[in-house]
């Protein structure tokens, strides 16, 4: 009996020692890479925001002209956390806004988007920030994989009309690949909600 | 130390005789999930091989401190920690590739071939042997991922090496081979979707078995011929 207990205690001690050593290893790797990862992410974000806007259409530093949306507005755009809105200015005048939106109904979880909307309510560009859609199947919503996401450019709630803001399979105007309609359907819905938000809040965003 | 004979045997075992994909049929989850293109398959295979190299060496060098009854939790701990470190390092230094492989890096932990080699080989052999065994088993798995990925990509999308630019930079976008000219918009969904993975994988397993059978057949027929003669 005594031997069994001491054996168990010894085993627990060994397991604990291994846990401490390998947790330290992971913590070390984490603190070593944290700065670089954060910098990578910020750089990727800046590049992504710039991609949603036509080159030369603004002359300010987008990350500097950033506002945090209220919790309620963020939720309306699908975000759990407070979302940012980046204002693109030219000659001091706000010409476009880039909003963080989330499509909560992707095939494999949330799809984070950046949606750039011009002052006249037209979409300038949409980009996927993060997604976990099926590789090779639903991930064509990502600009890195295909040009699908570019079909939003120039669209507004007036053209096509609101009820046709759907994928073609659901009777709308937006293309989707056969067999992978859930991801594009989610993105179309999120872009539409973003436009609706911008229409309602036009004056506060652009003036 | 490791002899040339040993390393030859370990290499042959990992890549061909005991191939983790088509002989041991281990680690099917990534094999089936990540083989929609060659690039995806090979990238995950290389990451798996790296983890197996390091985990084999780690397990072999720590094996004397691990009590027999505790080896499974300790091996899983070692493998999970190494995968986490790899995940963090790739996120920091190979971000483009990291974005491609995405959620499949953490899944290397659950790939049973990694634990199976820790248990069956690294727990009984030297550090160098175990590292080589892990690497070769990983390469064996990579070969299967590459073949299956190529077959599914050609059949499903009519291309080869799509997505290479995500791994090697934008200039590699020109290296994509269009077996079917892009203007035809060719797509064969069955091959891209999971059923295509299962069917293709079945053919690979059958093909390997057939090759093995054929390789041993001449001796057999020779033997019967001798008996008759």
UniProtKB/TrEMBL annotation, chain A:
Pfam (any one): FMN_bind
GO terms for MF: electron transfer activity; FMN binding
Cofactor(s) this protein requires: FMN
Keywords annotated in UniProt: Cell inner membrane, Cell membrane, Electron transport, Flavoprotein, FMN, Membrane, Phosphoprotein, Translocase, Transmembrane, Transmembrane helix, Transport
GO biological process, one term: electron transport chain
Residue ranges of every copy of the FMN-binding domain listed in the record: 106-198
InterPro entries referenced in this protein's UniProt entry, alphabetically: FMN-bd, Ion_transpt_RnfG/RsxG
Subcellular location: Cell inner membrane
Primary residence: membrane
Residues with PTM FMN phosphoryl threonine: 181
EC number, UniProt record: 7.-.-.-
SMART domains xrefs: FMN_bind
Keyword Coiled coil attached: no
GO cellular component: a single term: plasma membrane
Membrane disposition: Single-pass membrane protein
SUBUNIT field: The complex is composed of six subunits: RnfA, RnfB, RnfC, RnfD, RnfE and RnfG.
Job description of the protein: Part of a membrane-bound complex that couples electron transfer with translocation of ions across the membrane.
Family: Belongs to the RnfG family.
Protein name: Ion-translocating oxidoreductase complex subunit G
Name of encoding gene: rnfG
TrEMBL record, chain B:
Keyword Transport annotated: yes
Domain of life, per lineage: Bacteria
Name the UniProt record assigns to this protein: Ion-translocating oxidoreductase complex subunit E
Annotated family: Belongs to the NqrDE/RnfAE family.
Membrane topology of the entry: Multi-pass membrane protein
One BP term from GO: electron transport chain
Primary role: Part of a membrane-bound complex that couples electron transfer with translocation of ions across the membrane.
Transmembrane segments: 42-62, 74-93, 99-118, 130-151, 186-206
GO cellular component, one term: endomembrane system
Alphabetic keyword roster: Cell inner membrane, Cell membrane, Electron transport, Membrane, Translocase, Transmembrane, Transmembrane helix, Transport
PANTHER family referenced in this protein's UniProt entry, alphabetically: ELECTRON TRANSPORT COMPLEX PROTEIN RNFE, ION-TRANSLOCATING OXIDOREDUCTASE COMPLEX SUBUNIT E
Known EC number: 7.-.-.-
Presence of the UniProt keyword Aminoacyl-tRNA synthetase in the record: no
Description of how the protein assembles with itself and partners: The complex is composed of six subunits: RnfA, RnfB, RnfC, RnfD, RnfE and RnfG.
One Pfam entry name: Rnf-Nqr
Annotated compartments: Cell inner membrane; Endomembrane system
